[in-house]
Amino acid sequence: MNSPFRQEEVSNARIMVVGCGALGNEVLKNLILLGVRHLVVVDFDRVEKDNLSRSVLFTKDDADAGRYKVDAVVQRLRQMAPETEVIPICGDIAYDVGLGLIRQMNVLIGCVDNRWARYCINRHAMRAGIPWVDGAIDTLEGTARVFRPGENCYACNLGPEGLRDMARRMSCAGMIRRNIEAGKAPTTSIAASVIGAVEVQEAMKLLHPQELQEGEQTSLCGKMFYYEGQHLTTRLVGFKAYDDDCAVHDRWEPVRKLPLTVAMTVEETLRVLQTSLQARQVNVSLTDDCFVDYVVRRDNDRRYEVMQPGRRVAACIEQDGELRGIPFSGMYQHEWRDINAAFPYRWLTLASLGVPRQAVLNVTTEQGTYYVEIE
Fold it and tell me: pTM of the full predicted structure?
């Protein structure tokens, strides 16, 4: 029987998988078996013993050593297909993956377990103008969806309540631990097999736009596949929203490449931008985070130097003996969200501000807005 997918399209595809848990394991295994030979894998967690009951690519040695998940899966994938190019990124999709790299992908596949991570994947995909596939699992249930620029947006589907709750990280790991402690066999591996297969199937369809356009294949874009294994039911329901006023799916284009690196200082960066864009005034917006130079205790107005991206402030406070134990709500943080002539720390590098490699900078000058990719 002939495959519905052309091997050349599959082999040449560049796919990023975000999340290396139970779902990510199944997705990556299926991609390799189908012949995908260019992968980027993103995750920041380590392998734990509880992962072994539901993740085909992890071993007991990985858990005993506390290896990063990306390192473990990359080793297994290269053993399965040595000719495969696999790029591991041990980091957070929200902050540590440059849009320049994402722009090189054909499809993103989300295997994450919280709304905030999905929101960030969606934000990257919409800016880059590429589709992404989402999956979610819980015991014997699971869902799969497809989001495509101009057609369906995850943020638009959330609604007010979802936007309020999206920062909560509700991981399936806690659920697995509770089941094990209660003497129940973990079933997440079954749901992961089903949903992971559907995610890869839908990603393959996105690599064949002509077949989708001519009706030979049908995409999940604008719909949600729901699987419930306890009573063996499946449903396909409408799940489509795309608000033209939504800022999350603004596409960043055109993108210009300039001789910039994250090792360059703010001073050097502004100078290159001024020269290359022929501008007198340059402003670089830190669109996804901020830079915090100090925090102030509310009870005594004392300043404490931080000099870190906003996402690292809590960890810095936790390490400070004088601040440890004080709730974060008991402090103010002084933030910089724009880098320009007024920024006082011009000797700092872009990397120290939290800018990832291959990032795309949002640059405003007196002539307009530019999107500049870091080499």
Answer: 0.91
